[in-house]
Amino acid sequence: MLSPKLSLTDKKNRGKTDLAIIVAASLLTYLVAGYYDLAERWINWAALGEFYQLDEIIFVLLVLSTGLMWFGRRRYIELQETLKRNLEIKTKLEMQNADNAKLLLQNRALIKHITQVREAERNHLASELHDVFGQYLAAIDVNASVAIKYKTEDPKLQAILKTIQDSASYLRNVTRSQLRSLKPPGLETVGLSAAIEDLISQWQMSFTNYAIDINIDVDDKLVGYDTALTVYRCLQEAFTNITRHADAHNIYIHLVTQNKSIHGYDISLTIRDDGKGFDPAEGMGKGLGLIGIRERVHALHGQFNLHQAEPTGSVLTLTIPL
Questions:
Q1: CA angle 296, 256, 229 (to 5 degrees)
Q2: Domain-embedded: residue 1
Q3: How distant is the alpha carbon of residue 68 from its chain centre?
Q4: What's the Rg (C-alpha) of the chain?
Q5: Which of 95, 183, 314, 315 is in the most buried spot, having the most CB atoms within 10 Å?
Q6: Measured between alpha carbons, how far is 191 from 170 in angstroms, rounded to an integer?
Q7: 31 and 103 in one domain?
Q8: Residues 242, 276: contact at Cβ < 8 Å?
Q9: Is residue 12 part of a domain?
Q10: pLDDT at 84
Q11: What is the per-residue pLDDT across 288-309, written as a single tens digit (0 to 9) for each?
């Protein structure tokens, strides 16, 4: 058990107490020796062992005590030097920790800024796709449909018009899919629950070989836009990683808002799969996907955790206070 740290005043008082004990012990020894004539008794007793030179042992004890004092002094000096070096190392470590903490804050601020820039670029690209690309594709589709209705004796022209119409329809579907990825549909209007259900439904249409167990119990009125967007992006990123790396068959999604009587409401998302998991040494990898989600969660004063599941797979959980 570690002894409590002493103040400078307490250390001085303890030193005075120890010195007083030594002086008192010395005076007591002097009084006892004088009362019982210990010197004379020692001489008489040592004379009986003259063969062994017992009367000379007092000089041995004198040298031994002096040597112990010298030994203690050297160890004290070495201890002081060690303490000085330890204090210097401690100071350097504290400075390095302060620098590391500053760098960590700067890195988090940078990642947050990058995430915000990416989100702004996504919104801008979504607007361009919807307002420009989507409108022109719709116009091409309509014009091709009108042209097909006109009677023409050239079958090659009809085939070309049909090809143009099919291509425009395909590009419109691709554009619509990209818009869903870039900007969550209805997140501000219909709420997080409907947006999540729509995302899962669209994902299942593209990846039919996955079985998904869903449990969503969210009070959309409690969830702000930033929190809702973070949860939505986290689920998007999880789906991307599962399809690319997990080699899973079953996915469990649990999303709820709950009342933590002391801390108020929070929203909790758990995503678990039965895939091959990941290497703990690599953690979240080198990509910015999950790292960006983690920083978003931390920016909202939440908690983010990614770990391996038992016996196989991985589990991603996040909790954000509302």
A1: 30
A2: no
A3: 54
A4: 40
A5: 314
A6: 29
A7: yes
A8: no
A9: no
A10: 92
A11: 677 878 888 888 888 998 888 8
Distance, in Å, from the CA atom of 3 to the CA atom of 278, rounded to the nearest integer, reads 45
Calculated CA dihedral for residues 208, 277, 241, 298, nearest 10 degrees:
130
- Find out whether 288 and 114 touch, Cβ atoms under 8 Å: yes
The pLDDT-based confidence of 4 (bands split at 50, 70, 90) is: low
Separation in Å, CA 263 to CA 46, 225, 257, 305: 82, 20, 13, 20
Q: What does the pLDDT look like over 102-127, one tens digit per residue? A: 888 887 778 778 777 877 777 777 77
Find residue 272's DSSP bridge partners.
252, 315
C-alpha pair distances (Å), 43 with each of 39, 56, 60, 291, 318: 6, 10, 16, 85, 86
265 neighbors 322 (Cβ within 8 angstroms): yes
**What is the domain extent for residue 175?**
117-180
C-alpha distance from residue 289 to each of 117, 144, 206, 208, 233 (Å): 14, 41, 21, 24, 9
26: which 2 tokens? 């010395």
Distance CA 241, CA 290 (A): 9
pLDDT at position 275 over 60 = yes
Tokens for 209?
């070989």
For the entire predicted model, the pTM comes to 0.60
Q: Give the separation between CA 248 and CA 309, rounded to whole angstroms.
A: 12
Q: Which of 164, 180, 196 is the last residue of a domain?
A: 180
To the nearest 10 degrees (0 to 180), the angle between helices 192-206 and 225-241 is 20
* Per-residue pLDDT tens digits for 41-82: 777 776 666 666 666 777 777 888 888 888 888 888 999 999
Number of domains within the chain = 3
DSSP state of 288: S
Across the beta sheet with 264-273, the strand order is 211-217, 250-260, 264-273, 314-321, 303-308
Q: Is it the case that residue 3 has pLDDT exceeding 60?
A: no
Distance (Å, whole) CA 302 – CA 234: 13
Is there a single domain that holds both residue 191 and residue 295?
yes
Q: Partners of 266 in the beta sheet?
A: 258, 321
